[in-house]
Amino acid sequence: MDFAFEPSPNPVPANERAARLVDPVFGRVHTDHMAILRWSQDKGWHDAKVTARVALTVDPATAVLHYAQEIFEGLKAYRMEDGSAALFRPDANARRFRDSARRMAMPELPDELFLASVEALVRADRDWIPTSEGGSLYLRPFMIASEAFLGVKPSSEYLYIVLASSVGSYWKGGVKPVSLWVSHEYTRAAPGGTGAAKCGGNYATSLVAQAEATRRGCDQVVFLDAAERRWIEELGGMNIFFVFDDGSILTPPLTGTILPGITRDSILTLARDQGLTVREQLYGIDQWRADAESGHIVESFACGTAAVVTPIGHVSGPDYAFQVGSGGMGQTTQRFLEQLTAIQRGRSPDPHRWLRRLG
Ligand code: PLP
Ligand code: COI
Fold first, then answer.
1. Does ligand 2 have an atom closer than 6 angstroms to the CB of 317?
2. Which residues is 137 bridged to in the sheet?
3. 230-252: average pLDDT
4. Which residue's C-alpha comes closest to atom 1 of ligand 1?
């Protein structure tokens, strides 16, 4: 299925677009177009197009507004040095989108349609990819239950849309060490729940914990497991890694309660390629504190599409606080950040063929 192109009748003028691309705040700069596709029980996937980005008109009884049957993805298109564009591991996002759909009783979008939608939008809005170092076009595919019905059941109609947003660093002022608040009160996901799915509800429930982190003077919240309130899981929108004094690294395992991050997987792959000892293992908050204090842990970092690789400087909980390593950017963290961004920007070899170049 091809995505028909209906160019926007009033795109943002080039000089205005250039001004918006100078220092874009994450998620605030929107492009001219969106990709859109519908699904219904009788027609299946239909009406594929890239069209002007406009406000949606929805019936107030639309199912997603009531029962949150919604999933999304996040991936980036980068400007290559030769001026072309490339996506980073979009096939992995397509697969995860299907996994999320299954968990939320939604129809699975075939990978070819996911890829075609994203590529068609990047082609239409390629002038919105920032050329600055650290800049990229953040793509946000999402799907909502669009049937107007108040009964609690899987919707019989869905709307799939891809938005694009020109971004610089996720962090105001660029990458710098973040401080974390450990939430001992709120959890994000329980066994059997939706933690491994990228559904909006997971983010809705994280907000009160994130607000508490902010109130406590921390940048981000880190969640513990729901059953024992002991094992470190992930941040509200990033996975977490620990670096030990023997050079080994550890990240929590994919037990079903954390998001299987594509950045996480990429870092594990890079680390294994380099012969590092890698563990996907449960790691407790008390142990983290003890290891940071003894110097056994020398670095910790968070990672994700939006945040890339971000060092963790300080950690606080209700009755404790500790510093990780020097409190700054560690060597291993820096190395992963550089290696990953060099591949993403087409500046270094890509042995796993992660980049998908657009002709
Ligand atoms: N964990 C959560 C809860 C996220 O929202 C994200 C962001 O997408 C990640 C982890 C990192 O995933 P990825 O590396 O695929 O962006
Ligand atoms: C991402 O990294 O793509 C995320 O989804 C994190 C956040 C912006 C929700």
1. no
2. 77, 166
3. 98
4. 238
Q: The pTM is what?
A: 0.97
306 and 219 within one domain:
yes
Rounded-to-integer distance, Cα 170 and Cα 253, Å: 25
pLDDT digits 0-9 by tens, 59-117: 999 999 999 999 999 999 999 988 899 999 999 999 999 999 999 999 999 999 999 99
- According to DSSP, the β-strands at 249-251 and 239-244 are antiparallel
pLDDT of residue 134: 86
Residue whose tokens read 């550890």: 250
36: containing domain: 4-167
Per-residue burial over 194-229, b = 16 or more CB atoms within 10 Å of its CB, e = otherwise: bbbbbbbbbeebbeebbeebeebebbbbbbbbbeee
- Classify residue 355: in a domain, yes or no: no
- Cβ of residue 117 lying under 6 Å from some atom of ligand 2: no
Domain boundary among 167, 202, 232: 167
What's the domain count of the chain? 2
- Report DSSP state, residue 126: G
Looking at the CA of residue 96, tell me the nearest atom of ligand 1. 15
Residues 160-202: tens digit of each pLDDT: 999 999 999 887 777 889 999 999 999 999 999 999 999 999 9
CATH number of the domain enclosing 81:
3.30.470.10
